[in-house]
């Protein structure tokens, strides 16, 4: 620090985050200025903060205690007023999160590893909901289902885990979103090299003191213990043997597995080496895990050595950043803390001066915002199922937490606004070196977050109303059973899980009304959810199956289908019910593996080809015919032809002629090219930010899912159809080429949702219209599509729309079918086609009027019937003479029952209570409760009366304090339920 025109001294704490500035204050102005709102502690004189200049008064000698800034600005104000601004960078750029990541990748690249990009958070694996580990994209290689493309690799993988969500913010290390740095060996090197490089990276590259590193090994892994002690030189007292639960990695009941070894950093080496517990979070943090995948666990639990021994490691980027940046937890690293600072600003609180509860909330926001931004960027939109539920749950947790911190609206004065987009901008700003695609998707991310937050604010308000009703029910039930009022744990959990209410808030509101919460049952519900979450999100299933063994002897299938629909091939394998066989006879379902094929296997949304396999003999006979109904890819790039043997017998090793059905192939080609045109048309009409969220290319139609926040207008659909049919009419010749992935992205090629790509990709281009990475089959000229028609557009999830359309032959069939329907309709209505709309509108109006007349007649009949019942009303109470009528009205419909109840309360005069029930149809019950103001003033609500009544009849309902309706499904219980309601009202009215 320099250029200050007064003497000063700056003292730095041992961990480098706290600073004490001392200086004389003679001549400094004494008038106080703005309070130190950012919250860095100070005594007097010089104020220190980031971003904004803040001043304070000074005494004869000043001291400023500076807490935790990354870049500190020092401002002194003297007489005459003059300002000096000095920036002191307090953190070594080599310890930044971006630097740690790059140094890891460079370290392993220099040792022969291929640096590969992070996979999507949406894994190409049906057994896992989200990407939870760096090894996931290499799972097929570890299983031996696909050959390795490189001998070793290094990655920085985005990961999501939610099984420990309740610990986020409460501990120093739990996160939902994190980056896992990993180095992987696919049979290239094993324990010795992995251990050597991990130690070299930790001590030499990152500069961690060797005497602060501890090692854990599997209890029976003497080889690894010896490598750490004899080769690396780690003292025996700092190598801890742990059991199977801690240090033996398994993927499931069976499959690849092996011992692991972990490296821990010791924050307090002065505590010695006796009675050490590596699980003590106050002293240790595990930052590097080395898995030695060397066994296959069999069904009987026995272990057999794998033919190819693999290395799978994971180094937590946030954990290493915490260590190198010398901060007390992962959240205060430069990877997350800028988000926390922004959240604190919106909440108008100081993180440095905040209590533990406030800091926890800010940490939750900082962590969850990273998770939701990267999930939405990877195509996961909020919904109530699957991955979408994970996003929705995290978003709701952030919104709820922000409101608890006092964030109102957008936190910047707009009470109707949203604050998540403001925080998301900070996440996006930090994303450059994590995932460059996030910035290109920023507008969609911000719009989705805004929409979901504003929707949830309404949900919160509904939840508050539901809580009020639940508490009222708890009081009512307590009165009936003469017990202390208690809200069920299940209800509290519904409020927590569905409406975002922390149980602490629910408990606080309940206590104000003298109601307790059954926390035992709440904890049971929470545990159920935790177990389901852990099972759903954090299990990577690997298995060595029969197919994997078969794959060892079968090479990838050579695909010929771009250039031909018929070819000779050799049967490499046969499977019946998943098991290999040598031959299969007529009538059997079979899966056939060929060395080469013209059949397209389902991928990229396009379904597999149909056709036939013919096994020929010398005399040109056809002893075997297999009808192929589907083709799938398995075990990497092996095509599995699924079909039925209709003639003869087929054998392994024999030659067959494979013939694709040309008509069905053409239908698939037409629909696939039309899908590309549809995506381009959508981007032109509704905006470039829309992106694909799934597709289906079938023989009879195409389906395209895309991210968009509202239904498309009719005029937009017409414009989209017009564009596509124009491009079809242009008769453009498609261009197909193979190029590097980097070059394809540079040229603007669009990637297909959910697809994985190698270094070389196939690019399909409709010149001037569309360019996409695609392995599917396409027409050679857009004129082959002939015509395109959208048949439906609808929402399928929050922020996701779906268009179904037809093209080619399917388009012609659709038009002819619709034309036939129109002819039949014209004949029935006896009008011309152009007159159908007007005629149908007239019929609907006639129907509406007729229904109104019928309804009015029914209401009159019900009122007449009700008038005959009024004499049955009884008088309750000695002072107010309240009139009570509880009756059944046989088969009167719900609307008429309502009219009858309204008539009766007017007829009986205030105060009066009317309860009516009816059975308007098979298995149906209608119920009405109507109360006059005088009864409502006694504290009696119609909803409280009708709820137990409806429950007895197998239904539910509600309404206003003076009027409530309900339905049910148990007519046999109606009379008994009405009698119970009569007795309940008598008790209430007699008080």
Automatic annotation (TrEMBL):
Example GO molecular function: alanine-tRNA ligase activity
Domain Alanyl-transfer RNA synthetases family profile positions: 95-817
Annotated catalysed reactions: tRNA(Ala) + L-alanine + ATP = L-alanyl-tRNA(Ala) + AMP + diphosphate
EC nos: 6.1.1.7
Localisation: Plastid, Chloroplast; Mitochondrion
Cofactor binding, note field: Binds 1 zinc ion per subunit.
Primary location class: plastid
Enzyme class: ligase
Binding site for Zn(2+): 672, 676, 774, 778
Cellular component annotations (GO), alphabetically ordered: chloroplast; cytosol; mitochondrion
Keywords assigned: Aminoacyl-tRNA synthetase, ATP-binding, Chloroplast, Ligase, Metal-binding, Mitochondrion, Nucleotide-binding, Plastid, Protein biosynthesis, RNA-binding, Transit peptide, tRNA-binding, Zinc
GO BP, one annotated term: alanyl-tRNA aminoacylation
SMART domains (UniProt xref): tRNA_SAD
Cofactor(s) this protein cannot do without: Zn(2+)
Keyword check for Protein biosynthesis: yes
Entries under PROSITE patterns matching the protein: AA_TRNA_LIGASE_II_ALA (PS50860)
Subunit structure as annotated in this protein's UniProt entry: Monomer.
Comment text on domains: Consists of three domains; the N-terminal catalytic domain, the editing domain and the C-terminal C-Ala domain. The editing domain removes incorrectly charged amino acids, while the C-Ala domain, along with tRNA(Ala), serves as a bridge to cooperatively bring together the editing and aminoacylation centers thus stimulating deacylation of misacylated tRNAs.
Stored NCBIfam families: alaS
Function of the molecule: Catalyzes the attachment of alanine to tRNA(Ala) in a two-step reaction: alanine is first activated by ATP to form Ala-AMP and then transferred to the acceptor end of tRNA(Ala). Also edits incorrectly charged tRNA(Ala) via its editing domain.
Family affiliation: Belongs to the class-II aminoacyl-tRNA synthetase family. Alax-L subfamily.
Protein name: Probable alanine--tRNA ligase, chloroplastic
Organism: Nicotiana tabacum
Upper lineage: Eukaryota, Viridiplantae, Streptophyta, Embryophyta, Tracheophyta
């Amino acid at each position: 620090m320099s250029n200050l025109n007064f003497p000063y001294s700056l003292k730095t704490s041992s961990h480098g985050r706290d600073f004490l500035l001392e200086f004389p204050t003679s001549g400094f102005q004494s008038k106080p200025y703005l309070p130190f709102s950012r919250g860095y502690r100070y005594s007097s004189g010089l104020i220190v903060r980031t971003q904004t200049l803040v001043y304070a008064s000074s005494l004869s000698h000043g001291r400023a205690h500076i807490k935790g800034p990354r870049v500190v600005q020092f401002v002194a104000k003297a007489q005459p007023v003059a300002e000096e601004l000095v920036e002191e960078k307090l953190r070594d750029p080599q310890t930044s999160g971006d630097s740690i990541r790059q140094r890891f990748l460079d370290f392993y690249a220099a040792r022969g590893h291929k640096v590969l990009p992070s996979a999507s958070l949406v894994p190409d694996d049906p057994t896992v909901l989200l990407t939870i580990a760096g090894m996931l994209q290499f799972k097929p290689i570890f299983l031996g289902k696909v050959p390795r493309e490189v001998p070793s690799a290094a990655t920085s993988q985005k990961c999501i885990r939610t099984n420990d969500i309740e610990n986020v913010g409460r501990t120093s290390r739990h996160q939902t979103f994190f980056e896992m740095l990993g180095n992987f060996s696919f049979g290239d090197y094993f324990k010795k090299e992995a251990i050597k490089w991990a130690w070299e990276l930790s001590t030499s590259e990152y500069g961690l003191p060797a005497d602060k590193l501890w090692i854990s090994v599997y209890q029976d892994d003497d080889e690894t213990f010896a490598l750490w002690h004899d080769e690396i030189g780690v003292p025996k007292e700092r190598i801890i043997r742990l059991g199977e639960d801690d240090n033996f990695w398994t993927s499931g009941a069976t499959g690849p597995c092996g011992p692991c070894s972990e490296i821990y950093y010791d924050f307090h080496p002065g505590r010695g080496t006796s009675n050490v517990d590596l699980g003590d979070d106050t002293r240790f943090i595990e930052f590097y895990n080395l898995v030695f995948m060397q066994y296959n666990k069999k069904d009987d639990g026995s272990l057999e050595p794998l033919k190819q021994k693999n290395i799978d490691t994971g180094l937590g980027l946030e954990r290493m950043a915490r260590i190198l940046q010398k901060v007390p937890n992962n959240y205060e690293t430069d990877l997350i803390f800028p988000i926390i600072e922004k959240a604190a600003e919106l909440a108008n609180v100081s993180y440095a001066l905040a209590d533990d509860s406030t800091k926890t909330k800010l940490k939750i926001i900082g962590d969850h915002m990273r998770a939701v931004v990267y999930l939405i960027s990877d195509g996961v939109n909020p919904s109530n199922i699957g991955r979408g539920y994970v996003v929705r749950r995290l978003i709701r947790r952030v919104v709820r937490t922000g409101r608890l911190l006092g964030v109102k609206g957008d936190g910047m004065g707009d009470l109707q606004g949203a604050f998540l987009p403001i925080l998301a901008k900070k996440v996006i700003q930090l994303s450059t070196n994590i995932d460059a695609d996030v910035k290109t998707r920023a507008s969609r991310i911000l719009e989705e977050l805004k929409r979901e937050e504003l929707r949830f604010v309404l949900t919160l308000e509904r939840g508050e109303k539901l809580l009020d009703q639940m508490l009222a029910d708890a009081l009512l039930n307590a009165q009936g059973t003469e017990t202390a009022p208690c809200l069920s744990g299940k209800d509290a959990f519904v409020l927590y899980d569905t409406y975002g209410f922390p149980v602490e808030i629910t408990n606080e509101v309940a206590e104000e009304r003298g109601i307790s919460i059954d926390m035992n049952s709440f904890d049971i519900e929470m545990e159920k959810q935790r177990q389901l979450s852990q099972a759903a999100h954090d299990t990577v299933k690997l298995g060595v199956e029969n197919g994997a063994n078969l794959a060892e002897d079968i090479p990838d299938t050579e695909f010929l289908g771009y250039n031909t629909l018929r070819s000779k091939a050799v049967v490499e394998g046969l499977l019946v019910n998943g098991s290999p066989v040598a031959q299969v006879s007529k009538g059997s379902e079979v899966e056939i593996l060929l060395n080469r094929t013209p059949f397209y296997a389902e991928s990229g949304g396009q379904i597999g080809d149909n056709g036939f396999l013919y096994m020929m003999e010398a005399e040109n006979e056809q002893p075997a015919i297999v009808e192929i109904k589907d083709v799938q890819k398995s075990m990497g790039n092996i095509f599995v032809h699924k079909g039925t043997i209709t003639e003869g017998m087929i054998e392994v090793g024999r030659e067959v002629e494979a013939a694709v059905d040309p008509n069905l192939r053409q239908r698939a080609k037409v629909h696939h090219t039309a899908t590309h045109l549809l995506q381009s048309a959508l981007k032109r009409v509704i905006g470039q930010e829309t992106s694909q969220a799934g597709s289906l290319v079938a023989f009879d139609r195409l389906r395209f899912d895309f991210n968009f926040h509202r239904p498309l207008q009719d005029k937009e659909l017409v414009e989209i159809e017009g564009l596509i049919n124009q491009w079809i009419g242009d008769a453009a010749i498609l261009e197909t080429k193979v190029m590097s992935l980097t070059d394809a992205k540079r040229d603007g090629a669009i990637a297909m949702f959910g697809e994985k790509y190698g270094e070389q990709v196939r690019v399909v281009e409709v010149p001037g219209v569309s360019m996409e990475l695609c392995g599917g089959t396409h027409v050679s000229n857009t004129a082959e599509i002939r015509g395109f028609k959208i048949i439906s557009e609808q929402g399928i999830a929050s922020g996701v729309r779906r268009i179904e359309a037809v093209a080619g032959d399917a388009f012609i069939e659709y038009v002819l079918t619709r034309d036939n329907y129109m002819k039949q309709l014209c004949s029935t209505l006896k009008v011309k086609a152009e007159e159908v709309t007007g005629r149908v509108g007239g019929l609907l109006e006639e129907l509406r009027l007729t229904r109104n007349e019928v309804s009015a007649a029914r209401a009159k009949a019900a009122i007449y019937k009700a008038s005959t019942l009024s004499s049955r009303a009884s008088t309750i109470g000695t002072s107010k003479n309240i009139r009570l009528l509880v009756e059944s009205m046989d088969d009167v419909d719900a609307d008429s029952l309502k009219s009858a109840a309204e008539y009766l309360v007017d007829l009986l005069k205030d105060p009066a209570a009317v309860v009516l029930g009816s059975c308007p149809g098979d298995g149906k019950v209608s119920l009405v409760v109507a109360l006059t103001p005088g009864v409502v003033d006694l504290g009696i609500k119609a909803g409280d009366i009708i709820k137990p009544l409806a429950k007895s009849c197998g239904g539910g309902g509600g309404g206003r304090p003076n009027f409530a309706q309900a339905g049910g499904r148990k007519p046999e219980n109606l009379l008994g339920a009405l009698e119970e309601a009569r007795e309940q009202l008598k008790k209430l009215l007699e008080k």
